[in-house]
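Milestone M4 deliverable, item 7.
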Amino acid sequence: MTTSNTKMGYGVVNTGYSQGAVGEIIDNGTPTINKEVVTQVGSDNLSGDPRVLAFRDAANAERALVVSYKYDPSTWQPGDPEFLICNPAQKTAGKWNAVKTLSHSDWSQLSNPYGIATIGSNMFVADYDNACIAKIDMSGNAYTQSSALFYPFPAITGYQSHCASIGLLESDDAAFLVALFNHATADYSAYLSSTLVLIDPDDASSAVYFGPHGSTTTGTLGQNAVSMTVTGNYAYVSSYGGMQQGGGNPNSKLQVVRILLSPSVSFSIINTFSSSSTNLGDFVGTAISGSAAYVLRANYTPTWQQYRYQVYPTTTSNLQTGTALPAARYYGDEPPAAGSGYPGVTWMVAAESSRVWFVCGDTVKGIDTANATDNVYDFNKGLADLGNSPKNGHLNTAAIVQHGVSNTAVQHPAFASRTQAALKLRKALLEEREKKAEK
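Output delivered:
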């Protein structure tokens, strides 16, 4: 197995989603799993819905943000989260070293961080629940939020907006934020076309929109966009096309959007890959390392009994020119997750120079891209490998928090999590499956 020298942070929770822990997988040729490297934020136990996100601080050092996300499952309303900035490269007594502990009052604008972009000493945190971006000053490890909310997505009557991803578009002498939003009714049964927003990090009031907000431009991005990767002047946007469906949603798309800054800001969808023509699963995400690209597609089978995934190796050039995806090189079906009665969802893909990581249900997998056979490795054989009982009921979140020395230039670490919305949608899907079974 080719050496990668990478560290993955992941979160596990108990079956009842009341308490969680963060662990790490060190991939140095012989993968090592260290359980429970974060169990508390301050003196409080980590919640049953922990998040791990990766970023680089003002000194360009790799850091991890651990979020103890809280919500009331009976009302689906968020509570007051807690936040912990960690140095995943250093541990004390088996725990990641804490850089800064923050309460909800410190970052009051945030409920459910779902992406981070950093420019100099400024951190921009995208919040899924609140459909906003907060600006944080990292100077001196203070991590102080600006007094005014940096960017709120304008309200759309009848729809709840969610920020699904954030990235950076970098020109010769400037950097801009690119944020992805989806828009759903309260019961997540209907969606508008999704929206891309280009934001000046110094002046959010000049934001340019590509989507249904329509104050600047209009677009036809897919409904229920779930992920985005930004490299160069291109945003690779994956969308389910609406609600997830057994057998896949035929409206699911991967759209390649070119963003130009001169002579004025413009968006154009230069290519669209659609599930309707291939019927091979929903588009979940795209991982890019250099010129290599890996497209992840996954969906429930028609009977809802399993979750099927496929990973397609291609290139950024092929995606930009609309070259058809090759045959899936890595694929499989996930059975119901332990103790849950439903299949584990495939929901994350991230790439480095010699490794592609992806999460299949409750298993973390890696593709050794430097090996001629492109071997797929299970970094864990089951949840007992990832967590200590009882905090090993489900895999909840994952992100690359430390990159191998051969690939330190990676700017946008992939992140995914089973959000409050996803949990609610999963409940609806299971109820729909039960209704069909009764007929």
